[in-house]
Fold this sequence. Notes:
With 469 residues, this protein is an all-alpha fold. Among the domains are: 2-211, no CATH class; 363-465, no CATH class. It is built from 23 helices and no strands. 27% of the residues are buried. It binds heme C (9 copies). One heme C is lined by residues 247-248, 251, 257, 259-261, 265-266, 283-284, 286-288, 312, 316, 318, 321, 323-324.
Amino acid sequence: MNTNQFQHHRxxxxxxxxxxxxxxxxxxxxxxxxxxPSAEPTASGTDGSETPSGVNPAPAPALPSEPAMRTxxxxxxxxxxxxxxxxxxxxxxxxxxxxxxxxxxxxxxxxCADCHGGDPTEEDMDxxxxxxxxxxGRPTPGDIPRFCGxxxxxxxxxxxxxxxxxxxxxxxxxxxxxxxxxxQGDRKVATCISCHGYHGIRAVSDPQAPVYPTNVARTCxxxxxxxxxxxxxxxxHDQLEKWQASVHAEALLKKNDLSAPTCNDCHGNHGAVxxxxxxxxxxxxxxxxxxxxxxxxxxxxxxxxxxxxxxCLVCHGNHEIHHPSDEMLGTGDEATCVACHSEGExxxxxxxxxxxxxxxxxxxxxxxxxxxxxxxxxxxxxSRAKFELNDAHDKLINARVxxxxxSANELQKVIEPGLETAKKAHQMGVEALNExxxxxxxxxxxLVVIFLAxxxxxLKIRQIExxxx
Length: 469
Ligand code: HEC
Ligand code: HEC
Ligand code: HEC
Ligand code: HEC
Ligand code: HEC
Ligand code: HEC
Ligand code: HEC
Ligand code: HEC
Ligand code: HEC
């Protein structure tokens, strides 16, 4: 929005006053042209708004009877006194008109009265904004979900614009902590406009939308990273900071990997949890399916369930997740296992064994790599060995996934072939270096032979040239 306003201003400054007038008139007419008025608006966003019960209410509040955009091509445009007068009023009363330029609703032909009610054909202010004609001025926070939901919860209405768009946002919202607290009278929780804005609501696929993946964390952080705002609540306010330091933020913001999770991927857009997830504590498995599968078959699953622990959180955390390292496994200082297992337990033993296997594999792979590299630098053909090395690498990566069986036996099954592959590469490296050795010796021998031959030739020539020979 800011950039657009900025551009707008620049254009204005550049123009002459005549151009200014022309631009204003064109702007007003284009707005009137694009926005057709709603039919008999009696919509009220105030009734029943405090209770979530009125989701998909039977007597639907007045809605534009037809997608307004259709009138664009068809019937002659009707006037929109809301836009006209508010633009004339200037300042903050005109601000919504300017702000609406990039609003998805305006783009779909919806105008002021479609949200606020009132009569957009009346020139008179009191009649245009008459509560008896459904006018709702500024909705209170408690009214907002119903205010937006009068259209967004109405499948029949929304279908005319976009049949694929979900119509459960309002219903879902009331299952979230935000929605539940709103019903209880908390006015500081997020409502629809805290996350989407108003007068300038963008499609969720618009990179400038506050709910676009790369912007979501900042949108939530406006409240959740604001210690003062959350003072009266018992929850921490460090989620944004921690998430920004995580491997997920790195993938999303630095590598532009839109599949990496930000706040709403784990907490849901509107509901308490994302679709298909039963508890936020177990949300990780929705993306990291292999680790989750192995974990769920491991002895930890029933044990963690009993202790009320999330599947992955004890070892990886939730907001500040880092790249895991082998140090997390085993019985060292940084190992996760020693938090619960102590010496003498079979699990402690298993942790130690598993770490030893991974270490052995890493060491073997490193040595093989060093050897093959040396041969490659000396100009030997090592593509086969490199191929084996890559294969061994993949097997190590797989072994780190299989750690999530928390079984030394299971790990052994993938470490063994991995070690074999690494050893094969190692052997190829050795052979390449031997070959190099052999070739060098051969080269030296042939150099000696050539030297001797040249010497012999030289002596022979001298003998021939000597006078009287
Ligand atoms: C003839 C001028 C005029 C017309 C027509 C008009 N408005 Fe207004 N509107 C105003 C003025 C002036 C105010 C501020 C004073 C007030 O709140 O009564 C205002 C205030 C508002 C507010 C804020 C109310 C609040 O509670 O803060 C909204 C929302 C609004 N108008 C929407 C509309 C809509 C929707 C229409 C068309 C159906 C419309 N207006 C038509 C002049 C107009
Ligand atoms: C998508 C629905 C929607 C549309 C379309 C819409 N508004 Fe609003 N408007 C709102 C909401 C929601 C608020 C309350 C914001 C808040 O509580 O802070 C609001 C608040 C206002 C206010 C109060 C002052 C302010 O800016 O917060 C005015 C004035 C207003 N609208 C005028 C208009 C005018 C004029 C139009 C048409 C150009 C319009 N609105 C179109 C949803 C809408
Ligand atoms: C806590 C923040 C938040 C609140 C509150 C919120 N939304 Fe959303 N909304 C989002 C996010 C995030 C998305 C999804 C963006 C994406 O798909 O990448 C979204 C998506 C949407 C979409 C696009 C379709 C869809 O469901 O994906 C609509 C429409 C929508 N919201 C309407 C609403 C309405 C109406 C309300 C109030 C009842 C509301 N939202 C409340 C954050 C919020
Ligand atoms: C008069 C009916 C109506 C009202 C009231 C309304 N919307 Fe919409 N909204 C629509 C329509 C129609 C679309 C366009 C859907 C499409 O074509 O994709 C839309 C689109 C959206 C989108 C973009 C969805 C996408 O496809 O990315 C968001 C977000 C949204 N509305 C949020 C809100 C919020 C927040 C409010 C309340 C302040 C609100 N709407 C009030 C009718 C309405
Ligand atoms: C307008 C401010 C605001 C915005 C924006 C906001 N929240 Fe909240 N949120 C709150 C408040 C206030 C609470 C209530 C805290 C409580 O009651 O414990 C809350 C509660 C929560 C809770 C429940 C915490 C708990 O366990 O009690 C979660 C999870 C949450 N918000 C996630 C989000 C996410 C994700 C977003 C962005 C998509 C977001 N919020 C945007 C204000 C906001
Ligand atoms: C990778 C998934 C994930 C991401 C991304 C994520 N969260 Fe969380 N969040 C969780 C889990 C898991 C919990 C703990 C839930 C439990 O223990 O039941 C949690 C807890 C919370 C809580 C409750 C208070 C607390 O700190 O324990 C709030 C509030 C919250 N998250 C907000 C956010 C916000 C804001 C963002 C974005 C900056 C975010 N979360 C990103 C998974 C995530
Ligand atoms: C929406 C999908 C999604 C969710 C949900 C999710 N992740 Fe991730 N995770 C990713 C993506 C994408 C990456 C980045 C992959 C990469 O760059 O290596 C990643 C990376 C990771 C990494 C680093 C892997 C590495 O090799 O460095 C760990 C550890 C991780 N996630 C754990 C978790 C945990 C624990 C949770 C739950 C609290 C979780 N993830 C939730 C998608 C997700
Ligand atoms: C949050 C606590 C906790 C953490 C952390 C933890 N475990 Fe466990 N583990 C348990 C519990 C509880 C059981 C089931 C009871 C038992 O056998 O001790 C268990 C069982 C096991 C078992 C099966 C033992 C048997 O007797 O069959 C193995 C093996 C194991 N864990 C290995 C590990 C390894 C390896 C790590 C580190 C990567 C680890 N655990 C981290 C709590 C934990
Ligand atoms: C008991 C501790 C523990 C639990 C529980 C745990 N992990 Fe891990 N995780 C580890 C350890 C240890 C490593 C590092 C293995 C290595 O590098 O040797 C790791 C590595 C990872 C990695 C990076 C390596 C890989 O596997 O590709 C990801 C991603 C991951 N875990 C995801 C998860 C997910 C998702 C869950 C829940 C389903 C989970 N972890 C549960 C201990 C745990």
